[in-house]
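We were asked to recover a plausible sequence for a given structure. The inputs and outputs are reproduced exactly as logged, with field labels preserved.

PROBLEM: sequence recovery
POSITIONS: 265
GIVEN STRUCTURE:
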C-alpha cells in the first residue's frame, strides 16, 4: 500500500521528479534571464516533498501533521519573499557574477547548477521524511520544543527579511550596508534563523530509530553549507564587490552568524 512505502523508496522516487522540475525551471531562466528563480523553485520543491512524505511515509499522524504545517508555512513564506525580490529587483549579483565567470558556457553551467539544487532539495528533505516516518503517536515534550524552535525561527527570519527589504527601499541605501535591527547583531540573521528552523524537524523525529539523520542532514549540513559553500562566502564576496570598504568595516565589527553585540571599531 502507498501509505506503507519505505522511506528509502520515497527518496528514490522523488529524486527524478525534482530533477525534471529543476530542468524546467532552468529553461524558464533562459527565457527570463534571471537565475534567481532557482531559489524560489528550491523552496517550493521542499514544500512539495513535505506534502508527498506526509501522504506516503509510514509514521504516526501527529508528527506528520506538525512536519507538514512547519514545512509548508516555511516554504510558502520564503517563496513569497523570493518572488517579491525577483519581481522588484534586478538579478542577484551572485548570479550575474556566475554569468560573467562562465562566459560562453553560461547556460551549461546554470543547467548543472540547477540540477545541483535539485540534489540539495532531496538531501535537505530528509529531516521531513524522518519526522514523517516517526512511529510515536503521542504529543511529547519534543513536539512542544519543535513548536518553540519553529516559531522563534520563523519570526526571526521574517523580521530579518523585512528589515533588510525596508533598508534597501531607502533612496540612500545604494552602496551602504544595513546595520539596523537584527542586522546590527549578525551579518546574516536570516541565515541564522533559517538554520535554527531545521532543529524543529530534529525534535519531531525523536522516537524514530534514525532520528539522528534529521540532525545530520538538517542543522549540521545546513551549517556547513552556510559557512563554507552556498551561503556566507558567496554572499559576502558579492557584498564586498558592491559595497567595498563599508562592508569590510561591517565584517570587522559584526558577528558573522550567531547574533552578538557589535565590536568596537
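RECOVERED SEQUENCE:
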Amino acid at each position: 500500500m502507498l501509505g506503507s512505502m519505505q522511506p528509502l523508496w520515497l527518496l528514490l522516487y522523488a529524486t527524478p521528479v525534482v530533477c525534471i522540475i529543476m530542468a524546467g525551471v532552468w529553461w524558464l531562466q533562459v527565457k527570463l534571464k534571471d537565475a534567481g528563480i532557482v531559489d524560489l523553485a528550491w523552496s517550493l520543491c521542499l514544500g512539495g516533498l513535505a506534502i508527498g512524505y506526509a501522504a506516503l511515509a509510514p509514521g504516526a499522524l501527529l508528527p506528520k501533521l506538525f512536519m507538514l504545517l512547519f514545512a509548508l508555512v516555511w516554504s510558502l513564506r520564503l517563496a513569497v519573499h523570493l518572488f517579491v525580490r525577483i519581481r522588484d529587483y534586478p538579478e542577484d549579483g551572485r548570479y550575474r557574477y556566475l554569468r560573467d565567470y562562465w562566459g560562453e558556457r553560461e547556460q551549461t553551467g546554470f543547467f548543472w547548477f540547477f540540477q545541483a539544487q535539485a540534489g540539495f532539495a532531496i538531501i535537505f528533505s530528509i529531516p521531513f521524511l524522518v519526522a514523517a516516518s516517526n512511529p510515536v503517536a503521542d504529543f511529547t515534550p519534543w513536539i512542544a520544543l519543535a513548536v518553540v524552535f519553529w516559531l522563534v525561527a520563523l519570526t526571526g527570519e521574517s523580521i530579518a527579511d523585512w528589515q533588510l527589504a525596508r533598508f534597501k527601499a531607502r533612496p540612500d541605501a545604494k552602496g551602504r550596508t544595513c546595520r539596523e535591527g537584527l542586522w546590527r547583531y549578525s551579518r546574516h540573521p536570516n541565515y541564522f534563523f533559517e538554520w535554527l528552523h531545521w532543529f524543529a524537524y530534529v525534535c519531531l523525529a525523536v522516537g524514530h530509530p534514525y532520528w539522528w539523520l534529521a540532525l545530520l542532514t538538517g542543522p549540521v549540513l545546513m551549517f556547513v553549507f552556510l559557512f563554507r559553500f552556498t551561503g556566507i562566502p558567496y554572499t559576502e564576496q558579492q557584498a564586498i564587490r558592491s559595497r567595498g570598504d563599508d562592508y569590510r568595516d561591517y565584517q570587522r565589527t559584526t558577528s558573522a552568524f550567531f547574533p552578538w553585540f557589535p565590536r568596537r571599531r
